[in-house]
Amino acid sequence: MSRVKATTTTDLLLGKVAGLQVTLGSGAPGSSGTVRIRQGASLNASNEPLVVIDGMTEGSLSSVNPNDIESITVLKDASASAIYGARGANGVIIVKTKRGSAGVGNKFTKPEIGYRGDIYLNKIEQYLDVYEAAEFKAEYEKRGWNTALLGNENTNWQKQISRTSFTNLHTISVAGAVPYTPYRFSAGYNQEQGNVINTKRDVITTTLALSPKFLNKHLSLDATLRYTYINTPNSGSSISSAAFTDPTQPVYFDYGPVTVNGVSYPQKAFGYFMYGADEKGNKPQRPSNPVASATLPDLGYDKNNRFQSNFY
Length: 312
Fold this sequence. Notes:
The chain is mostly beta strands. It folds into two domains: about 10-95, no CATH class; about 100-250 and about 290-310, no CATH class. The chain is built from five helices and 15 strands. The protein has a six-stranded antiparallel sheet with strand order 6-7-8-9-12-15, with no helix packed on it. The longest helix has 11 residues, at about 135-145. The chain starts with 19 loop residues before the first strand and ends with a strand. About 25% of the residues are buried.
């Protein structure tokens, strides 16, 4: 797995196992898609396969740094149910992470420090095919609608809210052994920027793996401590909403200054165009446009902290 370039663990499974279907997500940060084994088609129960990470059956592929993975085993036949019972009915994905190696005679070994950094460029190659301003006006006239509501611009809203983005994945690790106890510690940071402005996802992972061996290696223990932090800002706009927006309207419009609750602002609506509003910005049919929705609102964050431990 060390030579495979992937920003998520799901990417490591693409095209690797016969009978394993990986459906890519929407392209938004954190949308890892779905994984199906045996084509489960339950209407009520989950069709997701059971994910086992270092012996932990409550695992999630999103909680593992792909650079920490040593091997992935997929069970898709009767062996899955034989080992894991009903939980393995949709198949089982077993993930084994990297661990330290014991020294000669279970003695101290010099720590090995490793670093891997990957940077990916994300670019939209094709947009949804929508009307330009002239085509939009012609369709309005053909249907007999009121063209007085249309503007004089030619705005491609999809391009206005889009950008070329970058994904960064960095991992640093320290592996070695103290007497009778091999160890490995890793810390990873992954920032996945979306192609829609102001969308991104930050993931921080830390993992400590201990593998003590005693009684001439007749007694072996494995301990794993894993912490995952995921922070995703909520976005107020999308490519689909931009595709349905009137292309004859501008992105910005000067409605003049405004005072709200005793606070004066140089531009009403922060200078963004509001559909249906008059020249003073009164009585808009929609108080924002896709660019304003993606740029202005602070819709909060989805934050997830997860700590897992396992001893066996």
